Amino acid sequence: MNILYVASGIPVPGTLGGSVHTLEVARGLAQRGHTVDVVACTRPDVFDVAALLRPISSRYDRFRLHHIDVPKTLALLSAPVIMRLARALKPDIIIERYYNFAGAGILAARRLGVPSILEVNALIVDPPVVLKRRLDDLLGGPMRRWAVAQCRMADRIVTPLHTTVPPDIPRSRIVELPWGADVERFCIDRSQEGTTPALPTVVFLGSFRAWHGVLDAVRAGGLLIEQGRVCHFLLIGDGPQHAAAVRLAARWQGHFTFTGAVPYDDVPSLLARASIAVAPFDTAAHPALRAAGFFWSPLKVFEYMAAALPVVTIDIPPLNQIVRHGSEGLLYPEGDVDALAGAIAYLIDHPDEARAMGERGRARVTAHFSWSRHCEALEWVMEETLKVEG
Questions:
Q1: Dihedral of the CA atoms 92, 295, 165, 113 (nearest 10)?
Q2: Which contiguous run of DSSP H or E holds residue 321?
Q3: What distance in Å separates the CA atoms of residue 341 and residue 332, rounded to the nearest whole number?
Q4: What interhelical angle do 337-349 and 214-226 show, nearest 10?
Q5: Can you give the CATH number for the domain in which 219 is found?
Q6: pLDDT tens digit sequence for 119-129
Q7: What is the pTM of this model?
């Protein structure tokens, strides 16, 4: 199958979740024998006018990569060059990663009569409390209409949770499909010397945005330290709450290590230094999650599990269906820092049980939540779409 995968405004290669997702899907489909061309960018803040005439094309890994450096909010300016690319490549199917200001791949598919799949990672229509939605309403709703139009034009929609898609789009065209982890990349042999941390080490990996809950992770760590627990906390990543987290952790100096942003290739070796992983999400800080449910399919949870770490996360679906309480980790009521600290303390006090949870987590993610499984399922969706549209 000849596949054109459009990920406008996503840097590939890159460290963002979208970068990892795009790269893994392209690589996984290529490994399954398909010819894959990816449209992405080098940096989301670069505007290369020349790229609107001709993308910078190269071979990357097992697929072809076409860079069009246009700011994400101006992604539709790339529609003519993507149309020319689609005409030249003659894809059997076009996949586009949804973004409100994108849609050039879906347009090209519609105009060329090529079947299309819209890959949705966020709520299609923002709830009224979001500033972007309020501005759109003031303008008469052009962004909302275009978002729904992309859904209507796509032959199939792939998303972790169907509630990301407006209710007037037929559910029969939606396929719920979780994202995944590279289980080979995150395979850590903890029997080798040096792979077991000297102290129980709790890791947090994330973008340090409010809804990732890094401040709750630091507060829980502080509670454990004040209780006399001998442990260390490793916080990987950067973002708006990084400075606040560093200031909060300063009162427990020496117990917290902040790496800042790191190359994605360094993440497995950092996770190898940990014994427990936390994902203390805070949906109250994210109106879209409150409106549509937890539609994320969080890469870090899958990567924690692939690294054989017991996971502590909040007790809401679908997280509590990925990490089962007492099996692959422990769950706690969202926002309850005392309960978060208590769950971490339990795993510190029961290291053998914690290791067993980590091993079960790796087995579970390998069986159900790997990128290999995702691409196998996506291939089935594409084949079914081609049968129906053919």
A1: -10
A2: helix 319-322
A3: 10
A4: 60
A5: 3.40.50.2000
A6: 999 889 888 88
A7: 0.90
